[in-house]
Each structure stands twice: as structure tokens, then as C-alpha cells.
Amino acid sequence: MQRKNDVRYKSEPMIYQLTLSPRAYSELKKGWAGYFRSDVMPLINEDIFAPLYSDKKSRPGIPVNVLIGLMIIADMQKCTFEQAAKRTAFDFEIKYALYLDDADFDFETCYKTIQRFLHKCVVYEAEHNVDLIHECFIDLTNKQKKIMGINGRLMRIDSLMIDDNVRTMTRVDLLYTVIEDEVLELAGIVRKRPKQTYTKIPFRNPQTEGQLSFNADGLLSEETSVSENSDSASEDDNVDTLKNRSLDEVKELIANSSCPDLPEALYHYVLRDDHNAFIYHDQEHSSDSKISSLLRDAKVLVDFCGDRCKDNAVYQMLMRVLNEQCIRKEDGSFELRKTGDPELNSGICQNPYAPESTYCWKDGHSYRGDKSTIVEQSSSAGDSLIAEYQYGSNTESDDAQGAAIVDRLKQSGQTQGS
Questions:
Q1: What's residue 415's pLDDT?
Q2: Are residues 374 and 158 in contact, defined by beta-carbon separation less than 8 angstroms?
Q3: For residues 230 and 185, what is the distance between their CA atoms, to the nearest angstrom?
Q4: What pLDDT was estimated at residue 178?
Q5: DSSP of 244-286, one letter per residue?
Q6: Side-chain-facing half-sphere of 353: CA atoms under 13 Å
């Protein structure tokens, strides 16, 4: 049940006057916390998030304006949600800014509360195509523009690069990883410590029954799951357990799996530390030699899979990487594309656990991820604020994204020109 917190009718708290000296209390009200308390918190519209809560009588949750305000403060002070949540227990400025006074002075929260709130927002966006966080931002911005006398005539557009939280892979590492994943998939082996992907839109994980989780920075994460070809896998048959065994024991287990005819040339992908030994510890073979070995294994694996795995997500990722990185010959073998090949564009797969990540080179730096376009509007007096933002591919030009966002502002009546 949603617990509303209408701060407009709250009186000046006594707890700070009794706890702090008159000088400290005066500095508290004059600082950023006083401005945030008077000019930000009362403008947060909690009704926007009403669809996330049940109308039935139940245990009330933490007020939405406290959660939104805490997220804004975390961004202002450049700290994680976890760090900001811990500081609510002892930081007077945060308590004062969020109206955590008198009856709520002992208020404490956990960053997992913010994670669950973001989880609800992301799921709601996936189901209804409505970004409640963005709506709250626009509503808050429009109210502040009226107070500051900003009419939207003066605008400045800029972009920020946002790196994905994934490891940068070499071509050897990328090819090995997608081959290894498909071999483990066919053998029905479950990862004990799954790799994580981060995505804006949630997807169903049969292992967790669709429950999503977030990392410490509030990014939505979900463990990579085993698809339908791994029905025979159990909790005891995981990668770490198998990699502690000998090759003969691995052969016996695979013989009893759903793919007993898996080619023996691919068994080594299951052994302990084969990934590190092949990519990092093997100094005798060059990168070209390693790639040639991987492409031979890829041909064996693709020929073995045939059409029976075409609907499998792991196999589709394997084929995507092979088609992007290699040329398929008439005999079915693969040849690595040379550097400078026009097919090796910025949209190719950078990491199989972030398939939508794209590559961009800007100002002498390489970026893998997305791009955020922001619009700053100013008044004639020089006051300014961020009026709009949007996320997009970092391969799209700043001009194209800027034109799209300005058109949206004009249609919504938030600008009178540019």
C-alpha cells in the first residue's frame, strides 16, 4: 500500500533545534539541505507512482518522495544508492532534506528498498511502455521552470557516454566464450556462479521465476539462465563440480546427458581453468594460432548442432558472433575477417552478456554502451536546469538525437524556440 507523505503541511521540526546548536541549525537551513527541503521535496508528485502499489489495506511502504529524493541526493553527491541509504541513519543534512524529522527521525532504509522500487518501475515500463521515473523528472522540471522563470527559448544540448558494466573482450576471448557457452548448454551443465547481464528491460529467468535483482549501483541485473536444452541439469551438476573431475569422468557425465554424441574435440571446454589456460597462460601459441583452433572447433560445433538448436538463444549468440567476426566458406569452415573489413562496424557484438552494447570512439577514448542526450534550458537571468534527457545508441550522431529531443519538447510545449 502506498504511504503518501505530503510535506507541504509539515511544520518546522523541533528535533534539530533540540539536538543542534543555534548556529549549526542555522547553517543547516541555509545549506543545500534547506533548499532541497523547501524547493524540491514539495514538488515531487507521488501520484505518478500510484500504479505500482495495491489499493488493498496492507503494510504501508516508504514514501515515494523519500525514495526519489534519496536517489537525487545520491546523484548530487556522486555516491551509490547503498552509500546514500546508509547515511540516512546518521547524516543530519540528508534527514533534514528528506523531512525525516520528529516521528521519522530514527528512519533507516536499505539500498535494497531502492532496488525493489526500481524493479517495480522497470517491470511497469516493460509492461506498459511508460517510464515513471522519466515522467516524475519532467513533472518536477516543469514546476521548477515556472519558479525560475525559464521559458525554454535558450537551450543547450550535450551528450554523455555511458559505459556498460561488462568486460572488454578480445576476439580470442569472444570466440572462446560463445563456443564454451554452447558446449555447456548442450551438455546440460549449469553454471554455479553465472555471469551477469545488465539490461533496461527485464526478461524472464526460469531459474528465478522472473524475479529480478540489482547491483549496488541500482542497475538491473539477472543471472544468465539455462535454456530448454538443459532440462537434465541439476544443482549438483554444475560447472565447478565438473571441472574438478578428470576428463574420463566428464566423458561419462556427458554420455548420460541429453547430448551423449557431443564431439570429444569439444570436451576440453568443460575442464577446469581451460578458459584461462587457453587465453592467458598459453604463451607458446600466437593469437592467430588460437583463433584458427577456435574456428575449427566452431565448425565442428555448428555442424553438430545443425537445425536442432536454431531456436536456442545461446546458439543464436554463437552464430551472431561467427557471422560478424568471420566469413563462412563453401566447405562450411570459418575465416576470420581482416581488420578494416566494413562488416566489422560499431554495431557488432562486444560481449555476449551485453548483446545490445555498441562501440564508439569519441575525443580519443573508446566507449562500449549507450549515450545519454541532455537538454539544458536557461533563463535571461542566467539560471539553468536540465529540462529533458533520453537514452540511445552511442552510434547515433549528436545532431540526430538532439533534433529528435527538441522536436519532442516543442510538441509538448516546453520550448518556444531554439
A1: 63
A2: yes
A3: 6
A4: 92
A5: TS-HHHHHHHHHTSS-TT--GGGGGGGSTTHHHIIIII--SS-
A6: 19
What is the predicted pLDDT for the residue at 190?
A: 59
**Contact criterion met (CB below 8 Å) for 65 and 41:** yes
**According to DSSP H, which parts of 44-110 are helical?**
64-76, 81-87, 92-97
State the alpha helices, DSSP H only, in 3-131.
15-19, 22-30, 32-39, 64-76, 81-87, 92-97, 111-128
| Cβ neighbours for 318, distance < 8 A, ≥ 6 positions apart | 178, 179, 181, 182, 298, 301, 302
For cell 551485453, name the residue. Answer: 354
Q: Which three cell numbers stand for residue 210?
A: 522472473
> What is the distance between the alpha carbons of residues 147 and 157, in angstroms, rounded to a whole number?
22
Question: CA gyration radius for the chain?
Answer: 27
Full DSSP string of 351-404: -TTSTT-EEEEETTEEEEEEEEEEEEEE-TTS-EEEEEEEEEETTS-HHHHHHH
Q: How far apart are CA 306 and CA 332, in angstroms?
A: 12
Output the pTM of the full model. 0.64
223, 208 contact by CB (below 8 A): yes
Give the list of residues 6+ apart from residue 177 with CB closer than 8 angstroms, or none: 169, 275, 352
Per-residue CA distances from 140 to 82, 286, 353 (Å): 24, 57, 35
Q: How many helices (H) and strands (E) does the chain have?
A: 15, 9
CA dist 4 and 65 (Å) reads 8
Tell me the C-alpha distance between 154 and 151, whole Å: 8
Q: Please, what sign has the CA dihedral across residues 311, 313, 318, 323?
A: positive
* Contact indicator for 189, 270 with CB cutoff of 8 Å: yes
Grid cell for residue 276: 584461462
Q: Work out the end-to-end distance of the chain between its first and last CA atoms, rounded to an integer number of angstroms.
A: 44
Q: Average pLDDT of each block of 10 consecutive residues along the chain (418 residues)?
A: 59 76 90 90 91 82 88 91 87 87 68 90 92 92 87 81 81 92 81 42 36 40 37 42 63 78 85 82 89 93 87 90 92 90 86 83 78 85 85 76 77 62
Q: What length is written for the chain?
A: 418
Q: Write out the three cell numbers for 286.
A: 600466437
DSSP state of 10: P
